[in-house]
Write a structure and sequence with these properties.
- The complex is a heterodimer of chains A (87) and B (678).
- Chain A has 87 residues and is mainly alpha-helical.
- In chain A, 80% of the residues lie in helices and 5% in strands.
- Chain A has 2 helices and 2 strands, in the order αββα.
- In chain A, strands 1-2 form a two-stranded antiparallel sheet.
- In chain A, strand 1 (43-44) and strand 2 (47-48) form a beta hairpin.
- In chain A, helix 1 runs antiparallel to helix 2.
- Chain B has a domain at 259-361.
- Chain B has helices spanning 2-31, 36-57, 63-68, 75-86, 89-102, 107-131, 136-143, 147-179, 184-234, 239-259, 261-282, 286-304, 309-321, 326-344, 359-380, 384-387, 396-414, 417-431, 442-449, 475-483, 488-526, 532-554, 561-585, 591-613, 639-656, 662-672, and strands spanning 453-455, 469-471.
- The two termini of chain B are 21 Å apart.
- The chains are: A mainly alpha (87), B mainly alpha (678).
- At the A-B interface, helix 1, strand 1, strand 2 and helix 2 of A face helix 6, helix 10, helix 15 and helix 17 of B.
């Protein structure tokens, strides 16, 4: 594979992963919060759901998928370099 | 590298153990009668000496060590240092207080300040690390070819960081004046000395290792009081889990307190007072003369009747405090009117999302919540002192990894802050509200002395109603140990933690300002042939000048900490975010577009912020510039306009002018992909 094409594939994949994660971020942050009033009826740990999401749920979700981030991206980077070495 | 990490862990392990022993020793000394003031002194002195020692041990004369700590800070430690760098006195003191005052609405800060790291990790950190220079203006100059972009970048860096650093030094002044009994203005300069020993001697390297030490102190100080409180109230020492049930109790208490007859009466009196101020403003300038006459008459009758000297003196002070001109009276009474109206308004339940009298007020609250979250997130991903930290890791993967660790370490605090607010509210509602004013606990007077707590028995029934208690948000956290009746050593610990939070952030910010000026302006633009030694001298001299300037501004007590910090976020977000993001993800963005975008974003934000927040700027001689907010969005979210305007401007101007040169496009390629040729 010529380097330009590889870079192109890498970048497109990178954009896809980034876009997907941003979508998740948007849902958790803005969509859930937008409906916080409607979601107040059920509670988690004694907190109304909207309150829980803003105070604990969303921050924990951010941290969790940041922890996986390196695997989603990092492994690919390593695999890419591996590929390069074999060529 | 592995050995290096092991020995680092060992050092910080010993250090934490010694810190706990010191607390224990002080607790024992308190039992044996050590006076409270000495405990305050010991904490202050102990921690400052500690930071100074690390600062001296890690001093450096190498440029790479000075600006980016030699690029060999392991991800976990970089995460801790970023955590301390990040968590300023706004997070430490302001957040819990904000949550106490506004309940759900305050959670926008928790969300915004954690979710911003998602943007950092996804959109910026890896690319900045791959670029691998020293400052954010470096990146702007490389991407948008030339010094114009660099200068605008430096200006925005200095502006946002300066607003932010003023808030930190203000926090330091608050702590030293309460716990050591120094005068506020003196406390500000003592704190300054603590900041300088570190950043001055060792630059990024000393700052990083001190920040790790400061993180440990601040997190212990944050967790200890609320954990004890949780144990006392619920029997389980896990505040983050138990505060839900306490919140249910608070909601029940709220229903009773809000409907209480005395409470409704007190609120009515405050509303009437607000109306009276409104009338006075309408009838200016006659009302000012009338007010003066009224006070004079009162003083005369009192003196004739041989009243107590104290009452006469109080009235005389009122008279001499009257504003001199009608314009001054307008803004003075306007402030008092708003204050009275706020205290007279119906209180909002802690747990309910977007409270408001009617549908549209509630929707406005929601809009403000969402826009503030957005501004704080984007600001996080654009604040130079945070982004700079991702230059200090060894590799690109480490940069991403250390974003995770940063988030992990700051989450410990952010997940606890809402619990703080709920527990403090529970204690105040059960122990303070409804008691007689004559036997209020000692902390109320202690904090009242520096003007952060005030009580006014407006309905004269001798009992404290909720509406009669005014708390400055910055006080909740510092006073919680006293509110809960914990030993003074815990108060000292909290003060040390708050100090650590303020100092660590101030260090990082001052360093950012100084490097922007010395590296970007002096070295890159004015004298590229300057020797490395000379560059460090310039940087250190600038650091000193900026620090003294910031302390001078802080001594004027400008606004509450959280407000100042929110402004800094809006400014940084509007100035940098569009240019940085489009710089990586859109090759077509060109220098003209970026330059216009940054300037437009910054100006729109400043314009909105100033006109919504201030009606007059006395020291500039400007009056009557206030305007109603657009769509009811508050000045803390001013960035939302600036960011949108910035993005639009970059895109439109770039498309209207020539595409960037080939070398710029190659540069974008170089930060996008891993370097396969290595």
């Amino acid at each position: 594979m010529p380097p330009e094409q590889r870079q192109c594939i890498y970048w497109r994949r990178n954009l896809r992963v980034t876009g997907l994660l941003l979508l998740l971020w948007f849902l958790v942050t803005f969509v859930v919060t937008y409906f916080a009033r409607e979601l107040a009826d059920f509670t988690v740990l004694g907190l109304p759901f909207g309150f829980f999401m803003a105070a604990q749920g969303a921050p924990l979700i951010y941290a969790l998928y940041m922890n996986r981030l390196d695997r989603t991206y990092g492994v690919r980077e390593a695999a890419d370099s591996e590929l390069e070495r074999h060529r | 590298m592995a050995d290096y990490i092991v020995s680092l862990r060992r050092y910080y392990g010993y250090y934490t153990a010694v810190f706990f022993l010191a607390i224990l020793a002080l607790a024992i000394l308190e039992r044996h009668g050590m006076p409270a003031r000495w405990i305050g002194y010991s904490f202050l002195l102990l921690t400052l000496v500690l930071y100074a020692t690390i600062g001296v041990l890690a001093r450096t004369a190498s440029v790479s060590e000075y600006y980016v700590a030699g690029r060999r800070v392991p991800a976990v430690f970089n995460g801790m240092a970023t955590g301390a760098d990040w968590m300023s006195s706004a997070s430490f003191m302001g957040l819990a207080g904000m949550l106490y005052l506004t309940g759900y609405q305050g959670l926008s800060y928790v969300m915004g300040w954690t979710g911003g790291y998602v943007l950092v990790a996804l959109l910026l950190a890896p690319y900045l690390r791959r670029f691998g220079q020293f400052t954010i203006p470096d990146f702007l100059a490389a991407r948008y070819g030339g010094n114009a972009a660099r200068i605008v970048g430096v200006f925005a860096t200095v502006l946002a960081s300066f607003v932010y650093v003023v808030a930190q030094i203000y926090g330091v002044g608050l702590i030293t004046s309460r716990f050591v009994g120094l005068q506020f203005e003196v406390g500000v300069f003592v704190g300054l000395a603590g900041i300088l020993v570190c950043s001055f001697l060792g630059g990024m390297r000393a700052v990083t290792w001190t920040q790790v030490a400061q993180y440990i102190i601040l997190i212990v100080a944050y967790l200890v009081p609320v954990t004890i409180l949780s144990y006392k109230v619920t029997g389980i020492p896990l505040p983050q889990v138990t505060y839900g049930q306490v919140l249910e109790k608070v909601t029940q208490l709220e229903q009773r307190i809000f409907e209480d007859a005395g409470e409704i009466d007190a609120r009515r009196i405050f509303r009437e007072r607000a109306d009276a101020y409104y009338l006075r403003i309408l009838t200016l300038p006659d009302s000012l003369k009338e007010e003066d006459r009224r006070l004079t008459a009162q003083i005369d009758t009192l003196t004739k009747n041989n009243a107590q000297m104290r009452d006469v003196a109080a009235l005389e002070k009122q008279r001499s405090d009257l504003p001199k001109t009608p314009e001054a009276a307008h803004s003075y009474w306007d402030g008092l009117m708003r204050q009275a109206a706020r205290r007279g308004a119906a209180p909002e339940p802690h747990a309910s999302a977007f409270p408001g009298e009617n549908e549209s007020a509630s929707n406005a609250a929601r809009l403000n919540f969402l826009t503030l979250v957005f501004c704080l997130m984007v600001g996080t991903a654009a604040l130079p002192h945070v982004l700079m930290r991702y230059y200090t890791t060894p590799t690109v993967s480490d940069a991403r990894n250390s974003v995770f660790w940063s988030l992990f370490f700051i989450l410990v605090l952010y997940l606890t802050a809402p619990a703080y607010a709920v527990f403090a509210k529970y204690e105040i509602y059960t122990k303070l509200i409804g008691t007689t004013i004559a036997d209020l606990p000692a902390w109320v007077t202690a904090w009242g002395k520096i003007g952060l707590v005030s009580i006014e028995d407006v309905n004269g029934d001798g009992i404290l109603q909720l509406a009669e208690l005014a708390l400055n948000p910055d006080v909740i956290l510092l006073a919680t140990p006293e509110i809960a009746g914990l030993p003074y050593v815990i108060s000292g610990l909290v003060a040390a933690g708050a100090l650590a939070a303020a100092l660590s952030t101030a260090d990082g910010l001052l360093l950012t300002i100084a490097s922007a000026l010395s590296h970007d302006v002096y070295y890159k633009i004015i004298r590229p042939q300057a020797t490395t030694q000379w560059r460090l001298v310039v940087s250190k001299a600038l650091l000193l000048v900026v620090a003294v300037l910031a302390a001078t501004v802080a001594a004027q007590k400008p606004a509450t900490i959280l407000f100042m910090v929110a402004w800094a976020f809006s400014l940084a977000g509007a100035a940098f975010f569009p240019a940085l993001i489009l710089g990586v993800f859109w090759k077509r963005a060109n220098p003209q577009g970026a330059l216009c975008g940054m300037i437009v974003g910054l100006l729109v934000t400043l314009y909105y912020m100033i006109r919504v927040e201030f009606n007059s700027i006395p020291w500039l001689g400007v009056h009557g510039i206030g305007m109603p907010p657009w769509f009811g969005i508050e000045s803390t979210s001013a960035g939302v306009w600036g960011i949108v305007a910035g993005f639009l401007t970059v895109v439109v101007v770039s498309l209207l002018s020539r595409p960037p040169r080939q070398e710029t496009q190659d540069f974008v390629e170089s930060v996008r992909y891993p370097d396969w040729s290595r």
